[in-house]
Each structure stands twice: as structure tokens, then as C-alpha cells.
Design a protein that fits this description.
Layout: H1 2-27, H2 43-56, H3 71-78, H4 88-98, H5 101-111, H6 115-125, H7 134-139, H8 159-164, H9 179-196, H10 201-210, H11 212-224, H12 238-255, E1 273-277, H13 284-291, H14 295-301, E2 317-321, H15 325-333, E3 342-347, H16 354-361, H17 365-371, E4 384-389, E5 408-414, H18 421-427, H19 432-438, E6 452-458, E7 467-473, H20 480-487, H21 491-498, E8 511-517
Antiparallel strand pairs: 1-2, 3-4, 5-6, 7-8
Helix pairs in contact: 1-2, 4-12, 6-9, 9-10, 10-11, 10-12, 13-14
Length: 523
């Protein structure tokens, strides 16, 4: 009804305007005009009609509020860096991306869980939507991505920068991998850098990669030499000179992927997850069960957690797939807080100390002391301690990341009638001791048909687990033991992965391949 009334009023008003225009034109002296000719519209009358149309027609809908067929259309419609892309350096990378359509599709599929959130955050801050492509450059949109420079997460924060922007890191949790926390921090940081460089996004991006100090020094050098101070004219690290063109090349690709015969996966223009308050610690396997999803899927949405349980000091929320959120909230509300974590009692034995108990149960010393209200480090034989225990019987690489074998991927053995631990170990070329440790079995424990046992085999993870392949360049002063200690690896594994002998000398600049559990390495 409102629309009909509005249209009627608009027609009446424009009709009145046309009559006015006709009168305006007729009243002007036009002696040569034929009697039956329509009155000519003068320049002043045209302006009058245009002004009326502007006043009466509804204002255009902002791009951020329009409806789109998918998130890629939303992204494409708002890209603003295209005028910056006409450079030979950009063309080279554009050519590379266009020839690797499979890689682009795979990377875009991985981004599907997170990119809508990033785009909406940029829209809310009125920042260039082009920045939603930055995690493609930084991490290929992998929240578990880790670089040899100790950068982690979608936005690849190094520890010092993470601390500077207020990102929390501890034994339980690494906020650099938290999608919400890291995105918020990255956009804050980019905003600060952009103000520092007077709104120049090219210099802002260079500073995000190389550091503001590096960019400022390059600007001062050029000013002193009387040279231009734009990004292309500065002498910057090789990586940074390639970093910015990478983003610009992606802007061209995502502006019109069909032009490059690149088919992007369907990603709805809608929230992929919902943030749900949990108000306490919870076993992540139990949380996954409440949401009717796998633990692995839960970790993809909540990659910041290092352990099988959420952190004692928070964050006390979980990201749950949108379709499962209401079910999760209903079931969580019905679950008392004291039942959200399973507990086991451990009796202190001769020779035990907090360090050995913490290692055995894959928990930090501070948590044991807090859970058991211990003021010091002294224990007495026979003392009982409460230790949190995973609700899932078998170890998953994403359930207790402290148990996952570095440089290995997990397979599963389902126990059959007549199986023994020694027989299973022999079949999979592992030791009985390893089977016991991987599956938290007691020495001499009985296994039963149907029971699932985790088996860790050498090599990189085949799925979206927590082990990531890292190319590491040897630095001056490095040794095998130092590298192994830093990345929580075994020297024997490093030797095997790189086909080198124990007596080999490492040379600065030498490249090593490492398979790193990003939740355990010294990042």
C-alpha cells in the first residue's frame, strides 16, 4: 500500500513538473515554432526536473546493504584497489594465479568458513573490502598456518606484534589463531598504520609486512636523495616488494574470476557461524557432541584452543556453525557446569612431582595447582589430585594436541577379536609403548573388539590437522638440537625428513623441511 501511494504521488508530482515545464517553454518567445510542435524544454526546466527526481526517487542502497548471490559477488562489487593494479609487477603475479585455478579454488574453499565475517567487519569499519584478500597472501586463509618467522594464524601475527596489539597467548590458547580475536586485532592494527602513513594503503600494507620502522626509514632515504616516496619508488625488502603486488593481483582475479576461467566454490552471502557464550570451561569433544558436529569441524571454527578443553581463564565462548547454533545453545543450557568436564582422580606415587604428572596427563602445572588449590610444589605420596580428562576414549589429533606425534599423521585401527597390542604394534610397525601412550592406556590394559586405537604414522598430515609443513632457513648459530627444541621436534625426524646424517654440519641459509605441530612449537 505504501509503495502504491508513493508511486502515485511521484507520478502526480512529475506530471505537475512537466506542466510547469510546458508553461515555462510556452511563455518564452519562440516565433518560428510551428503551432502543433511540442514545447521545447529549456536548460533551466531540465534542471528543475532533475532536482525533483533527486528529491523524490529513493536514495541508492549502499553496496554493503545490498543482497548478493554469494560472498564473492559482495566482495567483487566493493573492490576499490583496481586503479592501483596497472603495474608490470602485478601482471606477473596475476598471470601466475590465472594459471593455477585449482590452487585458487582450494584456497577459496578454505576461506569459506571465515571470509564473510572478515568482509562484514571491514564494511562495519568502512575500510577497503580489498583487505579481505590479505589472509590469502598471509596464510592462504589457513588459521593453523605457521611460518618459520614464528607468525601464526589467518593474519600471521608474530609473538611481539601479537603482544603489542593485545592478543592473548598461553599454554591453553593462542589468540593469533582465533578468527574473531585475530581479525579484530589485524583491522585495528591496519587502521593505526594507515593513519601513520596518511591514508596511503600501499604504504600501510608494506608496513604490515615489513614493519612501520622499515617503511619510514625507506621514505627518509628517498626524501634525502630527492626521490619520490611512493611504494614503488622505495627500497624495501624483497619479500615486501612482492607482498603488495600479490594482493593487487588477487584484487584483479576476484573482481572477475570468470575472465580467468577460475570457478570459485559456492559460499553463501550469510554468516557461517554464531558466537555462543559458554560461561565456563568445556570439554571440546562434549561441545562437538552437543552441536552434532565432529571435533575436527569444531576446531576449524575454534582454532585458537591448544588442548582438548577450553581455557580456564577464557575466552568463554565458542563459534558454532549457524545451522547448529540453536540446538547447541539448548543442549548446553541443560548441561550443568560441573558436568562439562570429566575428572579423574590421580594418587601420587613415590617419585612423582608436578612436572612428571603434568607431562603424563598433558596439562600445565599451573592448572593442576589451581584445580587442587595447591600453594606450593610439594606433594606427598598417597595424595589425591583431580585431573581433567577428555570425554573421548581415543585420542584425536585435535582432541589433545599435546599427544599428537610431530611429523606424523593419524590413522585408526579398530580392534578385532583375537587382536593384541603386540600384534597391532607389529602390524603397524610401531611399539607397544607408543600405542599405550597415544591411546592413554594403562600398562597391561585389556582391549576389546570394536575399540578404536589411534596410530600415528610418519609423514605430514593428510587432512586439515594441526601439523603444517614449514620451510626453515638455517640461521647463524643454529644447530639440530636448537631447531628441534624450538619446534618441539625430534632430531631423528629432522634428519629423516631432510635426508641428512647426524654428523652433517648445518650451513647458514640452508633450507630444511619441518613438519611442525603449530600448537606446540615455541612460537
Amino acid at each position: 500500500m505504501k509503495n502504491t501511494t508513493y508511486q502515485l504521488l511521484l507520478r502526480l508530482t512529475l506530471a505537475t513538473a512537466l506542466i510547469s515545464v510546458g508553461a515555462c517553454a510556452t511563455n518564452r518567445s519562440q516565433p518560428t515554432q510551428a503551432k502543433n510542435d511540442a514545447p521545447a524544454c529549456t536548460e533551466g526546466c531540465s534542471e528543475h526536473i532533475a532536482k525533483l527526481e533527486n528529491q523524490l526517487l529513493p536514495p541508492p542502497i549502499p553496496a554493503s546493504e545490498r543482497r548478493y548471490s554469494d560472498v564473492w559477488e559482495r566482495l567483487s562489487a566493493q573492490l576499490s584497489f583496481l586503479p592501483l593494479t596497472e603495474r608490470r609487477e602485478v601482471d606477473k603475479l596475476e598471470d601466475w594465479y590465472s594459471k593455477h585455478g585449482h590452487y585458487m579454488a582450494k584456497m577459496s574453499a578454505r576461506a569459506g568458513n571465515y571470509i564473510y565475517h572478515v568482509v562484514k567487519e571491514l564494511e562495519a569499519r568502512d575500510m577497503p573490502i580489498d583487505l579481505a584478500l590479505l589472509p590469502f597472501v598471509e596464510s592462504a586463509y589457513d588459521p593453523f598456518a605457521y611460518s618459520h618467522g614464528r607468525a601464526a594464524g589467518l593474519w600471521q601475527f608474530i609473538p611481539n606484534t601479537a603482544k603489542y596489539v593485545g592478543i592473548q597467548q598461553n599454554w591453553w590458547y593462542d589468540g593469533r589463531r582465533d578468527v574473531l580475536v585475530a581479525t579484530d586485532a589485524a583491522l585495528d592494527y591496519l587502521t593505526t598504520l594507515n593513519k601513520r602513513f596518511d591514508g596511503d594503503w600501499m604504504l600501510t600494507l608494506a608496513a604490515y609486512n615489513a614493519g612501520a620502522g622499515t617503511v619510514n626509514r625507506a621514505i627518509r632515504r628517498n626524501r634525502k636523495a630527492g626521490k619520490p616516496t611512493d611504494f614503488w619508488s622505495l627500497k624495501l625488502p624483497k619479500e615486501t616488494k612482492r607482498y603488495v603486488p600479490k594482493l593487487l593481483a588477487l584484487v584483479k582475479i576476484y573482481q572477475n574470476p570468470a575472465r580467468y576461467n577460475i570457478s570459485l566454490p559456492a559460499v553463501a552471502d550469510a554468516p557461517r557461524f554464531e558466537k555462543v557464550a559458554i560461561d565456563s570451561q568445556i570439554d571440546l569433544a562434549k561441545a562437538a557432541a552437543l552441536a552434532d558436529i565432529s571435533v575436527e569441524e569444531l576446531y576449524r571454527y575454534n582454532p585458537g584452543f591448544n588442548r582438548w578443553v577450553t581455557a580456564p581463564e577464557g575466552p568463554h565462548h565458542l563459534l558454532i556453525p549457524s545451522k547448529q547454533a540453536e540446538k547447541f545453545k539448548t543442549r548446553l543450557a541443560a548441561l550443568p557446569k560441573e558436568q562439562r568436564i570429566a575428572w579423574q582422580r590421580y594418587r601420587v606415587s613415590p617419585g612423582d612431582n608436578l612436572i612428571s604428572i603434568a607431562k603424563r596427563h598433558h596439562i600445565d602445572i599451573a592448572s593442576i595447582k589451581r584445580f587442587n588449590k595447591l600453594n606450593g610444589d610439594m606433594l606427598r605420596v598417597g595424595q589425591e589430585l583431580l585431573i581433567p580428562a577428555s570425554s573421548q576414549a581415543t585420542t584425536s589429533p585435535n582432541l589433545d594436541r599435546g599427544i599428537a606425534e610431530r611429523g606424523r599423521h593419524q590413522s585408526q585401527h579398530i580392534v578385532r577379536r583375537g587382536d593384541t597390542l603386540s600384534g597391532i604394534a607389529q602390524r603397524h610397525k610401531v611399539s607397544v609403548k607408543q600405542l599405550i601412550r597415544w591411546n592413554r592406556l594403562d600398562q597391561g590394559a585389556l582391549i576389546k573388539p570394536g575399540q578404536k586405537l589411534a596410530i600415528w604414522k610418519k609423514g605430514p598430515s593428510s587432512g586439515d590437522g594441526i601439523v603444517r609443513k614449514v620451510g626453515y632457513k638455517v640461521r647463524s648459530g643454529d644447530s639440530l638440537s636448537r631447531i628441534a627444541s624450538r619446534f618441539k621436534l625430534k632430531i631423528a625426524d629432522i634428519l629423516e625428513w631432510n635426508s641428512i646424517g647426524r654428523s652433517s654440519y648445518l650451513q647458514p641459509g640452508q633450507s630444511l623441511t619441518l613438519y611442525v605441530d603449530v600448537t606446540r612449537a615455541d612460537l
